[in-house]
């Protein structure tokens, strides 16, 4: 059994998709980031960076094992199930490169675009343009990678694809058309048709935001410092 601490966001979808793809037995525990659940002491013991997603794996020797950060969780689950990651040294190297490319480039850039599109409309023109250009650049990197292969690692669907895909799924709401990226568009659609991917994205859809955050939610989401 795995406890899955989750809120429906692209970062959370990476792990919900992997759990569904592997058919693992898990319990979803919602962490309402707009209400401050991520700062509760019991959650900080699992995720010291107060971010979702996180898991606690009970199916391990010894004490239950907490894992935080989506990339680390994907690597843990891939090793646990021996699925969606190559064992060949060269292919594994490429998997790790593209996984960390997502966590260090595509995800953060798309996340910043999302912030300025969804929470600062009409403000900070330079910032919005800066991150939109970087997101566009990352899509171009992905386009070149997919020019002669079905998935990021070739013919093999892996956790590298699961990590990157949610941030491409939301391209249109971020103001980015995929018309100029036909390889990315094809890859996006191929993965979207997987039943486990649809189930992962639908997980907790009843919690998705239906209205802009009020002032208290904005303070919780964006007003944190060392205090």
Automatic annotation (TrEMBL):
What's the domain of life for this entry?
Bacteria
Give the PROSITE patterns listed for this entry. GST_CTER, GST_NTER
Q: What is this protein called?
A: GST-like protein
Q: Where is the GST N-terminal domain?
A: 1-85
Q: What EC identifiers does the entry list?
A: 1.8.4.-
Q: Name one GO molecular function term.
A: oxidoreductase activity
Please name the source species: Natronocella acetinitrilica
Q: Does the keyword Oxidoreductase apply?
A: yes
* Record family assignment: Belongs to the GST superfamily.
For this UniProt record, the keywords arranged alphabetically read as follows: Oxidoreductase
Chain positions covered by the region annotation Disordered: 203-227
Matching InterPro entries: Glutathione-S-Trfase_C-like, Glutathione-S-Trfase_C_sf, Glutathione_S-Trfase, Glutathione_S-Trfase_N, GST_C, Thioredoxin-like_sf
Q: Gene3D superfamilies this protein is in?
A: 1.20.1050.10, Glutaredoxin (3.40.30.10)
> GST C-terminal domain location, by residue?
88-213
């Amino acid at each position: 059994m795995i406890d899955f601490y989750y809120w429906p966001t692209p970062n959370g979808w990476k792990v919900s998709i992997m759990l569904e793809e592997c058919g693992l037995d898990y319990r979803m525990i919602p962490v309402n980031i707009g209400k401050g659940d991520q700062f509760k002491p019991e959650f900080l013991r699992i995720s010291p960076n107060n971010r979702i997603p996180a898991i606690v794996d009970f199916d391990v020797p010894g004490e239950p094992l907490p894992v935080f950060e989506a990339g680390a969780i994907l690597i843990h689950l891939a090793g646990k199930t021996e699925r969606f990651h190559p064992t060949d040294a060269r292919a594994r190297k490429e998997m790790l490169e593209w996984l960390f490319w997502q966590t260090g480039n595509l995800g953060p850039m798309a996340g910043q675009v999302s912030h300025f599109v969804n929470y600062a409309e009409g403000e900070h023109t330079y910032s919005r343009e800066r991150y939109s250009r970087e997101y566009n650049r990352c899509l171009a990197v992905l386009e070149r990678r997919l020019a002669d292969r079905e998935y990021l690692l070739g013919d093999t669907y892996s956790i590298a694809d699961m990590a990157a895909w949610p941030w491409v799924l939301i391209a249109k709401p971020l103001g980015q058309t995929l018309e100029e990226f036909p390889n990315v568009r094809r890859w996006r659609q191929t993965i979207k048709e997987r039943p486990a991917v649809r189930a992962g994205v639908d997980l907790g859809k009843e919690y998705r935001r239906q209205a802009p955050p009020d002032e208290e939610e904005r303070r919780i989401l964006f007003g944190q410092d060392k205090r």
